[in-house]
Design brief:
Elements (H helix, E strand, L loop, with lengths): L2 H8 L17 H17 L2 E5 L5 E5 L10 E6 L14 E3 L7 E4 L4 E3 L15 E3 L8 H19 L8 E6 L13 H4 L3 E7 L4 E3 L4 E10 L15 H11 L15 E9 L3 E10 L2 H21 L4 E9 L3 H4 L4 H12 L5 E2 L7 H7 L6 E3 L11 E3 H20 L2
Parallel strand pairs: 3-8, 3-9, 9-16, 10-15
Antiparallel strand pairs: 1-2, 2-8, 4-7, 5-6, 7-17, 10-16, 11-13, 11-14, 12-13
Length: about 400
C-alpha cells in the first residue's frame, strides 16, 4: 500500500481518547488499532515487535550498514482528539483543488472555504483529503503513522539505501497529554527520535510551551436572596472577580508566536462552590514561573477581601524541550538537510502547544517534531494535502540515509 491507501484505511478506526477514564489506553478503540498495526508490521517482516498492555507498539527495521550507525526513531500517536467525533470517518479526495469553496456536507451546509481558511490557497492544484463535515479527519496523527510505515516499507524494498537501525513507535493518548507517560525510553533504545506530528509541509519544531494547569476553588455560602445581606457569599461572583483581574490581552485569542497566555477552559459552579480551571502557557521558563506566581498573588488578594474563600492548585504539565535539544542540534541540522533534499523549504517554528516529544526529551530521548501535513486539526474542517504526506514520507527516508552518510 502507498501512504494514501494506508491513511484511508487507518482513519476507519475510532481512536478518540478520553481523559475521564483514567486508563491507558484511555479508550478500547486505540488498542484495537494498535493490534491491527502490529499485524501489519509483522507481515512486513519488521523485528523486535512489542505491544504492551498500555498500548505502546514498538518495532525495528534492522540497519544494513557494516559500520556502527546511531539508532534513530520515528514516533506517532494513535489517538484522535476528544474535541470532535472520530467515529465513522468518511474521507473524500478532492482532485486538483481549484481554489474555491469545498462543500463538505451539503445537507448541513458545511463549507471548507479559503475565505475562512486562507491556507487552503497554498494547496491549489493539489489533491486534498477532506471530511464529510460531521467528524474530524484523523490526520492528527494517522497521517504520521501512515508516513512512518510507508517510509519503512520503502527502505525495506530499496536495500541500496544504507541506514542504521530504525526504531518506530506508536503510542496512545497524546491528545489528552498522556502519550509519553508510560513510554519506555530504555526499551525503545534510540539515540534520538522525531515525532511525525506537526502541521503543514516544512514545519520543524524543537521549542514548545512550558505548561501548567491551575484550578481555583471558591467556597461560598448560600442564603435565601431575600434575606442575604451580610450573610451570602456568592462564589460565582467572586470567581468572576478573579477572572477579570487577569490581563485581558494575555489570552489565546490575542497572542501568537512566542507570546504566552492564561486560558480559562472551564467554569463549574453554584453560589456555594465554583471552580475555575485555567491552562498557563509560556515558552520562556522565567515568564512561565511568573505567571504561576501571579495566580498565587491573585488568590491571596481574593482571600484578603473574602477570608479563606479561595484555594489554588497548580500542576506543571510539561516543559519546553529546547533546553534538551540545544546540546544535540545536529539532529535538527539533519532534519533540515533531509527537507532540502526533498525540495522542501524548512519552516522552523515554535509549537504553540505541547507534544509527546517534549516529555520524551525530558525522559532522555531528544525528540523534535516534524510535519505530518495536516491542517485544521481537531474538527470538521481538518484536511491533508496528499503531496504533503508523500513529502513527509520522503523526509523520513532521507533522514535515515543522512544518519548513515554522516558516520
Amino acid at each position: 500500500m502507498n501512504v494514501v491507501d494506508r491513511f484511508l484505511e487507518y482513519v476507519k478506526f475510532d481512536t478518540q481518547s478520553d481523559e475521564l477514564t483514567n486508563m491507558t489506553p484511555s479508550t478500547p478503540g486505540q488498542m484495537v488499532f494498535v493490534r491491527y498495526l502490529k499485524e501489519e508490521l509483522e507481515k512486513m517482516g519488521l523485528k523486535n515487535i512489542t505491544l504492551d498492555d498500555n498500548g505502546y507498539l514498538m518495532a525495528t527495521l534492522p540497519g544494513n550498514c557494516s559500520e556502527k550507525v546511531p539508532t534513530v526513531g520515528f514516533i506517532a500517536h494513535v489517538d484522535t482528539s476528544p474535541d470532535m467525533s472520530g467515529r465513522h470517518v468518511k474521507p473524500r479526495i478532492v482532485k486538483e483543488y481549484d481554489g474555491g469553496d469545498i462543500t463538505l456536507n451539503a445537507e448541513q451546509n458545511v463549507l471548507l472555504s479559503p475565505a475562512e481558511f486562507p491556507e487552503l490557497l497554498h494547496y491549489k492544484g493539489q489533491d486534498l483529503i477532506v471530511t464529510d463535515g460531521t467528524t474530524l479527519l484523523g490526520a492528527d496523527d494517522k497521517a504520521g503513522i501512515a508516513e512512518i510505515i510507508t517510509a519503512v516499507d520503502y527502505l525495506m524494498k530499496h536495500p541500496e539505501i544504507k541506514h542504521g537501525d530504525i526504531r518506530i513507535a506508536f503510542n496512545p493518548d497524546e491528545e489528552i497529554g498522556q502519550g509519553a507517560h508510560k513510554f519506555d525510553v530504555e526499551q525503545f533504545g534510540a539515540d534520538w527520535a522525531y515525532t511525525m506530528d506537526g502541521g503543514e509541509i516544512g514545519e520543524l519544531e524543537y521549542e514548545n510551551f512550558n505548561a501548567a494547569v491551575a484550578r481555583i476553588t471558591f467556597n461560598g455560602r448560600n442564603v435565601h436572596p431575600g434575606y442575604a445581606k451580610h450573610k451570602m457569599i456568592n462564589s460565582l461572583r467572586i470567581a468572576t472577580q478573579f477572572a477579570i483581574m487577569l490581563p485581558r490581552w494575555e489570552t489565546p485569542e490575542h497572542t501568537e508566536g512566542y507570546e504566552g497566555f492564561y486560558h480559562l477552559v472551564s467554569i463549574e459552579g453554584t453560589v456555594e462552590k465554583t471552580v475555575l480551571t485555567y491552562i498557563i502557557r509560556d515558552h520562556d521558563r522565567d515568564r512561565f514561573e511568573r505567571r504561576k506566581k501571579e495566580f498565587e498573588h491573585l488568590t491571596r488578594k481574593i482571600n484578603h477581601e473574602f477570608p479563606d474563600v479561595a484555594s489554588l492548585e497548580i500542576k506543571d504539565q510539561y516543559y519546553n524541550m529546547r533546553e534538551k535539544i540545544e546540546p544535540v542540534m545536529h539532529i535538527i541540522d539533519i532534519a533540515i538537510e533531509a527537507m532540502k533534499r526533498s525540495d522542501i523549504v524548512p519552516k522552523v517554528v515554535p509549537i504553540r502547544g505541547g507534544t509527546d516529544g517534549a516529555q520524551l526529551s525530558f525522559k532522555g530521548l531528544p525528540c523534535p517534531n516534524i510535519f505530518a501535513g495536516g491542517l485544521n486539526f481537531h474538527g470538521r474542517y481538518e484536511f491533508v494535502p496528499i503531496p504533503s504526506m508523500e513529502k513527509a514520507t520522503q523526509v523520513i527516508v532521507e533522514i535515515a540515509r543522512l544518519v548513515a552518510e554522516k558516520q
